[in-house]
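Quarterly update from the structural biology core.
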Amino acid sequence: MSLIVKINSTTELPLVEWDAVAFVSTPRLKIASDDLATVKTTFSEINKLEIFKDDNLVGIATEYDKYSSIQYLGTVFSPAMNTFVECLQVDLQKTSLAEQVERLTAEIFPVTDFDHMTTEEYRTWLLNKIAEDCQNDVYAGTSVQISTGVKHFRYTMEDQQNLGSIVALLMSVPELPAMPYHADGEFCYLMPKADILLVYLTLHMRLLAITTRCNHMNMWIKSIQTKEELMNIDYSTPLPQEYQDQVDAIMARAIEMEELLIAHYLPVRAESGTTEPEEEPEVVPDEGGAE
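Predicted structure, tokenized:
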């Protein structure tokens, strides 16, 4: 398994492990390296951090501007690499409010001189734009038919962490019939296990489809030789057939696996195409669901 962090869309470093939930409470990265000088230089000025697992984007952070400390942990076991590696632990520092406002202003009112960009400069800009559009597409979420009707669910990084934790708990304790969660703009309630699993599978398959397509779009962009060709591409541009065929093959296999999961965990839906109507949901304090 490949697990890397990309800093400022340029420098890539291997990660020992990645836990999205732990990162939210303690912004810390474990880098598989003993090159202290390089790691210090790399994390001395941060604009964006991107986490990739097997070339798929699984996390983005833009609220950190530099490291607060770096500690050498010696030799540790890396689950990602399945071996022992030298490790540097990097603790990150958030930007100040003034810096966040300045950065946000620059993002809202960008000044980009495309005419004077070289081919490589424009390629870098385009790859960053595709990554941003990909993230926004994932975060937008989708509507899902659950037992109480068609509901919309976003899938931001926080939603992914919350829903993933709830599903993990449901899988580890099969006796649990429901957990607190809610659709966008609605009260939190004890959502039935079948509904939660259906929401998770739907959102995760959508994420997989989006990130797989973006990965192949990135590979296509990297293969193009002229700036003129690059300037005709945006997030909505159809992939060349050879790349689209690869995406279709991956998604066909993913759909097969999803159907196996549905058959195992949602047998009623697998047989009839829907879930059994549930009793009127019990509203609970909003503590477990996505915002």
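The chain is about 45% helix and 25% strand.
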